[in-house]
Fold each of these.
Amino acid sequence: MLAYIIIFVYNFGVHYVIFMNIFEKLKILAASAKYDVSCASSGSNRINAPGGIGNASYSGICHSYAADGRCISLLKILMTNICIYDCAYCLNRRSNDTPRTIFTPQEIADLTINFYRRNYIEGLFLSSGVVRNPDYTMELMIRTLALLRCSYRFNGYIHSKIVPGTAPELLQHVGRLADRVSVNIELPSQQSLRLLAPEKNKHAIISPMQKIAKTIEENCADRQHYRSTPTFAPAGQSTQLIVSATPETDYTIMQLSEHLYQKMKLRRVYYSAYVPVNYDPKLPNISKPELWREHRLYQADWLIRLYGYRTVEILSAQQPNLNRHVDPKVNWALQHVDFFPIEINTADYEDLLRIPGVGLISAKRIITQRRIQRVGYADLKKIGVALKRARHFITINGKMHSPLRLQPNKLAHALSDYGDEPHQLEFDFTGVRQP
Ligand code: SF4
């Protein structure tokens, strides 16, 4: 493994002669993968098979933090950073003068197994630049996964990227070998793709997503009748969206995400604040990523995925962007003060979930405790409710947490994540329901 390897790659009419050992390649290809955020954690739970190595668990892949604060999973690598495409926002784009290299399938399989045995990692996240064409790239990745699963009998978690435009027959192979697959949607509209990633198009991205969604559904149905049916992407599919590189609003982005959750049954949409790594006049002139926006989008995403909100409740054509100062749930509550206060001892589960400071688990615990005895303010803390937030929106046995009332500016100021610019918060507090 330590031997030096010479690889000749023919790409865009240029011969790259790559003369480096596997660890030099690892350094380059792990660094090149760090801007892909669509693998926050493992999504499979599976115990080891006899004679195999590894198992997958929901706590899954180990994490590490990059210099810019992003959470990076190990072993997260690219097959190659050679790419025939020229996406304006990407470090690995064709026009960048950067050291290029490529792993062989055997090298990645060896690295994964050796790192796994040393307990460095619990799974593999494999992505790639596009070398020659999407199908050729996917074939290299499939060979890697097949080596791991079939030769090494690796049973750990594998997340594989799908290159947009991959042939449907190859998707079948990837889905049989990987736990999770993802096609990056990259940008929220066809227009933005044309501007920043002209070699990609909506059809090449959406069509594999649709095919994967359909196959997962069919596979689940088959497995209900025949338990021995091999699994197909048991941890589902996800995607990644770059935000703030193009002018789409949060409303457009969240509508797209909602559509992907409903129609394509995606497990997760990952949002990645645009990180300026290239100079290009087509790109926005920002010096650092808008991480606050990424954070707000994740919060809105949780509300849609798990709390039963619709995008149109959180955002609208008139208010198309998320409030920087308060989280989307608080923002909704402040815009709908007539919905509050909610009586903790009688409200149904869906209404409890609308209270800022009450989460999925605490709402369930409230319901459970109510079956035995009434819930008091002291109980809420033990249950895990963030009382500092919730107390403004609830009553217990008809009483608010005295002497609080829904007072517009004070409340907005108190619930602001920044607490410094309350004058920028504009809420309509007419029609406040008093207890
Ligand atoms: S396809 Fe685009 S985003 Fe992906 S590696 Fe190539 S240039 Fe980068």
Note: The chain has 15 helices and twelve strands.
Amino acid sequence: MKCPYCQESETKVVDSRLLKEGFSVRRRRKCDGCEKRFTTYETIEISMPNIVKLDGRREPFKREKILDGIEKACQKRPIPTEQIDRLIENIEKDILEISDKEITTKQIGHIVMMYLRNLDPVAYIRFASVYRKFQDIEEFVSEIRHDEENFSTTGDA
Ligand SMILES: [Zn+2]
């Protein structure tokens, strides 16, 4: 890492601090040449898969979109923000386990619903009803039943 003041390439790390639960590091460095100090940040870069939408169009993965959907579903529910953050982290891990190239919105929806289902029943139903655009309540209920069957067969419930 070159010194931003004098371009000297020899610098010393005088302090390191882990940030954000260990996913980034802040380093204070001191230049061997001019002795000025500067700060660098090191973060992990994970490349997420592209999202394949229902109509076949592809778009880059956006964490904010998923977060937005989950926050709407969790509105006015007694769910702490940290729990939602952790949820997003788990969802991203699950997505990466499926693929780091492409994933369908449907697959993402299923993952999100699985987590919300365990987190909060109201948030789950809100998300599911918006996500699946149900025509009527019967279809909604039968879908939930269908899900229950799926969960009990995979032993995930
Ligand atoms: Zn320097």
Note: Residues 3, 5-6, 8, 31, 33-34, 36 surround zinc ion (CB under 6 Å).
